[in-house]
Amino acid sequence: MIMKIKLHSIVHIFSISALCSLFTTQIVNVDAADTYGDPRRFEKDIQAFKNADKTQNPPNGAIVCIGSSSMRGWHDNIKSDLSPLTIIPRGFGGSNMNDALYYADEIVIPYKPRAVVVYEGDNDIAQGIAPERIRDTFITFVDKIHAHYPGARVYFISIKPSPSRWELWQEMKQANKLIAEVCSNAELLTYIDVASEMLDSEGEPKADIFLEDELHMNRKGYLIWRTVLRPILLEKEISFEKK
Predict the structure, then answer these.
(1) Three-state secondary structure call for residue 111
(2) 149: domain range?
(3) Directed axis angle between helix 97-107 and helix 131-148, to 10°?
C-alpha cells in the first residue's frame, strides 16, 4: 500500500526534474516543440469572464471547473449535471495546462474555491508538449492554488481519447499515468478516469459520443463524464456545500 505524502514533497521531487528538462530544452533548441505558447492569446476570453463577474459575482467557496474546449462545451449543462453542488464553469477553448496555470490568479483564486476541477492536457499533447512537462505544470498549478487555499481539493479529469487525435493516445495515456501517480500520493488530489468509459470493447474511442469533428463531445459524451465525475464529487464535496 502506497502511503500518502505531502504535496510539497512531490513538488520538490518533480521540480528538480522539471528544471533540468527545461534547462536541457533551452540549450538544445529554444524553439523546440515542447514549448508552451503565450497565454495572453486568451485575454479576451478571460476578460469576458471578469465582465460577467461584475454583473453576477460568483459565490465564494464553490467548485471552480477550469479547462479547455471540452470543459467549455459543458458550460450549458455542467451546473445541472453536477447539482446540487455549486459550480463555477471557467473553461476556455484551446487552452492547455500552462494557460490554466497562468490565469488561475484571475479566474480561480479570486473565487476562494473550496475545490477545483481541471481538464487540460488534450491540447498540450497536440501541441507537442511532453507528458512529463504536463505533469510538472499541473503540480505547479496545484501549488499555486494551495499557496492561497491550503485545504482546497483538486480533481484532475483524465485526458480523453478521441478519433481525431487517436495517433496521440499513447502520449496522452502516459500523461494520465504520470498525473494519476501524483494524485495517488497526495491527500488533496484526485485523479478521475473518464477515459476508460469513453472506449469501446475494442479499446477505441466510442464513435457515437463525438461531434462531426471527432474531437469534441456531444451530449452522450458529457453524460459519461457526469456519470463518472458526479458520484466522486458528491462523496467528497457535499458535506462542504453551503446550506
Answers:
(1) helix
(2) 43-240
(3) 10
